[in-house]
Amino acid sequence: MASVGFSEVMPFLSLYVATLGHFSRGELSIYSGVTFAATYLVAGIVSPMWGSLADRLGRKPMLLRASLGMALVMGCMGLVSNVWELIVLRLIQGIFSGYIGNANTLIATQAPKENSGRALGTLATGSVSGSLLGPLLGGVLAQFFGYRPTFFITGVLLLSAFVLTLIFVKEDFEPVTKEETNSPKEVVASLKHPRLVFALFFTTLIIQASNTSISPIISLYVKQIMHGSNAVSLFAGIVSSVPGIATILAAPRLGELGDRVGTELVLTFGFVFAILIYIPMAFVTNVWQLIGLRFLIGVSNASMLPSVQTLLSKNSPTEVTGRVFSWNQSFQYLGMVVGPVIGSLVSGAFNYQMVFISTSVLVAINFLWVWNNTRSLRKKHLDQLHR
């Protein structure tokens, strides 16, 4: 429900920006990119603070904070009169971020380490299910009711996530006092493979930058290849949500596969596959080709972020897992700032197609980084398989 509420407005957010003023194509790309990135900029700054607080108060209070705060802010977005008011609300939304991240931490700290891949893969299925339904539902609602009412409906959905969390989520949590909380230096010292952990942080940044670089222009790109059709909002919702279908099918299975053959091998597969899929997206001639390729990119998504989270869980002591995941979430949010900015600048300077090419290059750089930093893990799992 939280993921539905968060992703529901994404397919038409840039189209909504276009209704708030008279902008050129370049201006619209820039404003759309800033609007997308604003939430993640603030979220990346405050995430470590919430992570530290979660270690002392528990993850459930953080889930309640995030869902209620976003419900109120999202409803207010339907009342804005210009793009700057929308940007300010997106900035405020960043303060109330962290629902999915804290859910990941809650699972990572309570699931047995040997089953963490399956547990986090299953949780990713729930999150991605919302990401699948959200854009599709948002596109349908925007098509039939308009943009502003959809923000109000989204606020109600996020409020329902707050109520469900309050009633049904249970946490077996032992509070950590402020005095007992490890300093950042102590957290790093407790890690067996700190270089690997920081490489995974950087990997998270690049994955999210790659995923979100096309977010500000996806509906504008759909509008271009559909030649201004009246059904742009609906098809933009389909294009945004269709990767979730593949991810729902693949994430749990890839999680289990990673537990058997090595999560780093599954992660490597995801990068290579993504590089091969992003490039042809720049050359589609109709929306159905784009939908087909977006379905395939969902498979790579299912093998990347869950794999990173699993590797972090397996390489972090339980007592500092919350801090490590909060740091990773900061890098995730930073990637969500960098991605839309790159997409906006590239599309403004060149065209929409060039965004997909630049995204493929970004994924290739990340692949080389991961390949270099997981060499010892690959050797270890290959030796185990040969035995």
From TrEMBL:
Localisation per UniProt entry: Cell membrane
Coiled coil (UniProt feature): none
Domain of life: Bacteria
GO cellular component terms, A-Z: plasma membrane
Annotated membrane topology: Multi-pass membrane protein
Gene3D superfamilies in UniProt: MFS general substrate transporter like domains
Main localization (coarse): membrane
GO MF term list: transmembrane transporter activity
Pfam name, any one: Sugar_tr
Keyword Cell membrane: yes
Keywords, sorted A to Z: Cell membrane, Membrane, Transmembrane, Transmembrane helix, Transport
Record domain Major facilitator superfamily (MFS) profile: where: 1-378
Residues annotated as transmembrane: 30-50, 62-81, 87-107, 119-145, 151-169, 196-222, 234-254, 266-285, 291-312, 352-371
CDD domains reported for this sequence: MFS_MdtG_MDR_like
Record's protein name: Multidrug transporter subunit MdtG
Source organism phylogeny: Bacteria, Bacillati, Bacillota, Bacilli, Lactobacillales
